[in-house]
Write a structure and sequence with these properties.
three-stranded antiparallel β-sheet; 17 helices; 494 residues; five-stranded antiparallel β-sheet
């Protein structure tokens, strides 16, 4: 789950000088065109299925993979929450890193043996780390993990909560590793066993303090949080995992209770279940192929969750093209709102108009709400590539062409940019290029993860194919009431 206060409190202002020509030196191609203050007229978008598009995706996927591969192990075996600002390790980012290692092996960017060893080292660390109710010397409790961990020792970071959603994203990555590393050699055999043990240890039933709902978390100081999961968001995968467990599976009509608070509405002419930030329409799809399978709710509306995410993506693009607030640069070349970094928490006058900006925030646009300060996250579009490649790929190529190394380098896209904030003022994060805009200097693991995973799912279906044979995923979907599509011929999970 995206939580703002602790991340903001731990953040530090980072100075990073980015040269326009750095992309070429970092393996990013021939280098971007110089950034100008504004283009006089819209330029045509590139074709999404062209040779240049395929080459661009090769570079984007490769560079994003190396964010995980290069940075993991700098301080410890754990994946950093963000970089180059060093704060703590993110449990959810570790789940995305487990995806990355297998993708790197499949693409032959690293050897399968190296990927398996790194995966096993990560899983073994998590399995062996202290699990108890102590305030400061544990990594987790009852099979769940704290939201953030100290990067070296892997213990609870400050007073963060034991998080059900961050644990779920970690376990989803572990189960993918379990299905991907399927060879009989000792390392891959051990990967499968430790992943199974981690998943089995999570006591989902303990988190049903207001059954049948699942609690968002727990802390040793205050006990269970007063909030439960309800309504459509990134927790769809959490519920599938909690239902699919062989031990400690949740009881009662868990899926019915959760989906009962869905909000169905229309945004830019498309009917859908609403959630404003795009990450809520992407995270669960990283691991689970929802194409052609339906629960009761989606069957009643005649679509599946994949189509729902496609509609959310296209509607956000339409919102940016319409640009009701007049933000600079919004168009088919620049769109995508989600939870991400931002420049500052202040109101600034720009071109005679007062604009309110924010740092890390859950930005989004839907019929549920609009949260927009002109800050675009490339991961918002990129994480939707499998849903709408015909509009996502041209937009990503345009961001690269228009902003060059200010937005893209050897580790892929920066977390966010804001062309509207182009006046020289103090910012809390990133830097301002006068006349061009604000550009983040950090990348976040939970934003890099969907970029890499969803590009690979669109190109090869790697994660989806592996997870379609994982018995825990099959069992969880069936217990949630999903039917049809690939589930009709899936292996018996018993």
């Amino acid at each position: 789950m995206r939580r703002i206060p602790i991340a903001v409190a731990a953040r530090r202002v980072t100075a990073l000088l980015v040269l326009i020509g750095a992309l070429a030196a970092a393996g990013g191609g021939a280098g971007p065109a110089p950034v100008t203050k504004a283009h006089a007229a819209p330029r045509p978008l590139p074709a999404f299925d062209s040779a240049p598009a395929r080459s661009f995706l090769d570079t984007l996927e490769f560079n994003t993979f190396h964010w995980f591969w290069d940075l993991q192990g700098m301080d410890s075996i754990l994946t950093p929450d963000r970089e180059p600002t060093r704060t703590f390790s993110s449990v959810a980012a570790i789940g995305f890193a487990l995806n990355a290692y297998a993708i790197g092996a499949e693409r032959k960017w690293v050897s399968r043996e190296a990927a398996a060893h790194r995966t096993l080292a990560t899983l073994e660390f998590l399995w062996s780390a202290p699990q108890d109710s102590s305030i400061s010397d544990a990594t987790g409790y009852r099979g769940f993990f704290y939201h953030f961990l100290e990067p070296v020792r892997g213990r609870r970071f400050k007073d963060v909560e034991l998080s059900t959603i961050d644990t779920a994203l970690l376990l989803a990555g572990a189960l993918f590793a379990q299905s991907y590393f399927d060879r009989p050699d000792p390392v891959e055999t051990r990967v499968r066993a430790v992943a199974e043990s981690l998943y089995a240890r999570a006591d989902w039933r303990w988190m049903q303090v207001r059954a049948p709902s699942i609690c968002m978390g727990w802390s040793p100081e205050g006990g269970f949080l007063p909030y439960d999961w309800g309504g459509y968001d990134e927790a769809m995968v959490l519920h599938v995992l909690a239902l699919g467990a062989t031990r400690h599976a949740v009881e009662g009509d868990v899926w019915g209770k959760w989906s009962a608070s869905y909000k169905w509405g229309t945004f830019h002419g498309r009917g859908m279940v609403g959630f404003a930030p795009l990450f809520g329409h992407q995270y669960s799809h990283v691991w689970i192929d929802y194409r052609g399978i339906q629960d009761t709710f989606m069957a009643q509306h005649g679509i599946d969750y994949f189509e729902n995410s496609r509609r959310a993506t296209l509607s956000q693009r339409d919102y940016a093209i319409q640009n009701p607030s007049g933000y600079r640069g919004y168009s088919a070349r620049l769109w995508g709102l989600t939870a991400c970094d931002g420049p500052t928490d202040s109101t600034i006058e720009i071109a005679g108009r007062k604009r309110e900006f924010h740092t890390y925030d859950a930005r989004g646009a839907s019929f549920v709400r609009i949260g927009d300060d002109g800050t675009i996250a490339p991961c918002a579009a990129a994480g939707s590539i499998a849903f709408a490649p015909e509009v996502v790929i041209p937009a990503l190529m345009a961001m690269h062409a228009d902003y060059g190394a200010l937005a893209f380098d050897r580790h892929g896209f920066v977390d966010a940019l804001n062309p509207t904030l182009n006046v020289p003022v103090h910012v809390s994060q990133g830097r301002i290029v006068p006349g061009v805009g604000w550009f983040d200097t950090d990348r976040l693991g939970i934003d890099q993860g969907p970029i890499l995973a969803m590009i690979e799912n669109w190109r090869s279906g790697l994660i989806w194919k592996c997870m379609r044979r994982n018995p825990h995923i099959i069992r969880g979907l069936e217990r949630a009431g999903f039917r049809g599509g690939w589930l009709a011929t899936a292996p018996d999970p018993r």
